[in-house]
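Summary for the steering committee. One of the milestones for this cycle was to obtain a three-dimensional model of the protein with FE2/S2 (inorganic) cluster bound, which we needed before selecting residues for the alanine scan. The sequence and ligand used are listed below.
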Amino acid sequence: MVKLDSKVPSGNIQDKWERHKFEMKLVNPANKRKHTVLVVGTGLAGASAAASLAELGYKVKVFCIQDSPRRAHSIAAQGGINAAKNYPNDGDSVWRLFYDTVKGGDFRAREANVYRLAQVSVNIIDQCVAQGVPFAREYGGLLDNRSFGGAQVSRTFYARGQTGQQLLLGAYQALMRQVGKGAVQLFSRREMLDLVLVDGKARGITARNLVSGEIESYSGDAVLLATGGYGNVYYLSTNAKNSNVTASWRCHKKGALFGNPCFTQIHPTCIPRSGDYQSKLTLMSESLRNDGRVWVPKAKDDKRHPAEIPESERDFYLERIYPSFGNLVPRDVASRQAKFRVDEGRGVGHTAEAVYLDFGDAIKRLGQEAISEKYGNLFQMYEKITGENPYKQPMRIFPAVHYTMGGLWVDYNLMSSIPGLHVLGEANFSDHGANRLGASALMQGLADGYFIIPYTLGNYLSSNKFESLNETHPAFIESKKQVSQKLMQLLSVKGKRTSDEIHRQLGQLMWEYVGMSRTKQGLQKVAKDIAGLREEFWKNVCVPGDANFKNSSLEHACRLADFLELGELMARDGLEREESCGGHFREEFQTADNEALRNDEKFCHVSAWEYKGVENSPLWQMHQEPLIFENVKLSQRSYK
Amino acid sequence: MKTINLKLKIWRQSGPEDKGHFMDFNATNISTDMSFLEMLDVVNSDLIKQNKEPIEFDHDCREGICGTCSLVINGSAHGPELGTTTCQLHMRKFNDNDTVYIEPFRAKAFPVIKDLVVDRSAFDRIIAAGGFISVNTGSAQDANAIPVAKEKADLSFAAATCIGCGACVASCKNASASLFVAAKMAHLNLLPQGQPEKENRALAMVAQMDQEGFGSCTNTGVCSAACPKEISLETIAQMNRTFLQASLGNRPPTKLSEGGF
Ligand SMILES: Cc1cc2nc3c(=O)[nH]c(=O)nc-3n(C[C@H](O)[C@H](O)[C@H](O)COP(=O)(O)OP(=O)(O)OC[C@H]3O[C@@H](n4cnc5c(N)ncnc54)[C@H](O)[C@@H]3O)c2cc1C
Ligand code: FES
């Protein structure tokens, strides 16, 4: 039986982290270089962790799928990063950032983790500026801030629409500095395919060299997973094409519990699908909702050009339903309302799967130049993709899968239920509860990597003894064997369907039944359908080529095999959680005016799923970590 | 929905040792709303169904920011549209019955791995040599302690938008990496935080660039024209000045990097 101990230190929430830092054991400087740490992933979380640990003196090996660590998915983040600096003097504080995050997450996050996140947020901005991250500045030369959804203060730091790129380059450069010094060994174009356990501890990984196809072993005293989110289980998402769940999933199957898998975030403003060939979706930053008005025609199946629809025949539904927040309601609310409109038959564009985001009024009021100054690059991106000019006609937007709040369960020290396996960034089930606020993922990734793991990992390493071992240990040989067998199995199916086709089908099922609104019936049905699709995959997938070379179809099929298992778990988790909270909307549980209805009595917990193995049915068993709110009062969110 | 048909001539190369050749493909019923990579997805899915190996190409974000996609399309790095990566290029820029040549980014320092995929790790090694500010985690002062003039910060940002794709190298007749290196120097050197290491950075990065086998810059400006982020040629002039200054100081390049990869 797995024991779920969150290891949250006792005492006052304000003092927990400081005290914990003092009480944790340190590794003596001379001993640090005796420990090898494996860091998988080079996004904000992985790159910042690897660089910081190497600076401390640990021997670090770092792995990524892309040809360069700088290309991790974090590079695509647009809007900004939150921090409780209170430079604008508008009443922000660590406490307020903590409170907003807990409330925004619909009271399904661990209080102590969120508080610590808010505390270290201020150090992140200092660190990044010192590295040369060119944040936006005011004319006086000081840093500029803007506001984001779910907050009434301006606490978001940004670098035009490219904040993720600039933060990641900062972390990447810090990492490459350590590579140059020989303190970090870099292994790019590598994909972790298994976790190696020795005496119950995470002691290494098995990875595939994506160029030569070779299966390789790496040993160390701890493994840090910073492999990002699993939004691509929906096929279409705003995630980069290489984002996947495989590293987390293989660890899950080795015993790491998976926390709140059904908590996914669907972002309201993305460019809609244009046809069946669509390979990914592009985000249009949340900031656009500051000036854009969302509407659909009042009449159903209205095929008129938007310009021909008079004001009186337009339904500005967010302004109508939420007069006080209007177009700026949180993401989950805005997404759901767009879906309702499309379901009613009032969607726009040739697929009828979109709503309008209209800048007409703003352009009249402020002039085209002012709008272009603020959003120029986004308007340009929109035009490149759609061929339509958003200055002249409203943008067509629709919600898309964007972020996964769920992930591997970790304790306060960021350690999973497997000793030595730590999980950072979007890959852990983290601090965002059932809904993440804009600009908080970048903050969390960097908090984990720069300021939390360097302390908590030291405590783990100094409190445990490590038998010296290398890659010839039988556990490594066995893992390699199993990984190779699985790849061979994929190659030997020689069926008729491409893995891309099957992935699209999985995505449609997930979107339909585990998407913006879910029902008991739908979830039951889809869990079965996914199991069926998984069976078909193993009988009918076609993967050409062989395992000894670069083989992108094999890479894709290998990831899809894991998504096909994860999808079922997400459905089961959604089924079990008989309440609506944040991004998890169960149609059976809503208020009279269609808002999410939580059930704090029965579901104020983290659902942490244990994999029981193919010989068991069901494949998973659920454990609960109760969530205790001592500092924030549980309340119904209202944005009316 | 408008559709077009294309004749594709695509470079195939089974590995670094293979000589490589063009292979003909037909892309039929291509929606003009597709992106260029989605068009290649269609071609690949047909190949897979015939149990043939698909054409390997690098890609990830498909929104013009990660720098993973590449391709020389009809002789231009990232294709015909200015300021656009291949993944952002859409098929409405092509006409029915066009013939389209698709090749990898070619340069001595970017060896081909397979088909259209090349090894650009030389760029990482240049950054490792000096493309950073030396500040350990935890040692930073308050972020607003040093004001930075907005104009300088904006120029620094403009240089920092380089996505490291290598189009500058692929389009230069000398396969020079000057624009890439200069953009990084401009990003860091324009900021007060970047001053202490300015000269050493110039020496170390340039030395590594030469060692990787990139050619020298003859100021043709093709790199900046091909750059999907439109990085300015002015950065190269700045780099040359800094490098000259540093060399006149007669300091040997302190090699910041000595470790292996
Ligand atoms: C379009 C977009 C815009 C966003 N904008 C914002 C924003 O404005 N503000 C904000 O706060 N958040 C934003 N987010 C969310 C945020 O970008 C991500 O949550 C965050 O960057 C994740 O960082 P990470 O370090 O956890 O993982 P990632 O950046 O996803 O990195 C994962 C790393 O793991 C590696 N990896 C994965 N699997 C393996 C494996 N098996 N073996 C080896 N390596 C592996 C990858 O190669 C990569 O290096 C945005 C997200 C998207 C999609
Ligand atoms: S795939 Fe990321 S820039 Fe083209």
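Key point for the committee: The first helix of chain A runs from residue 16 to 23.
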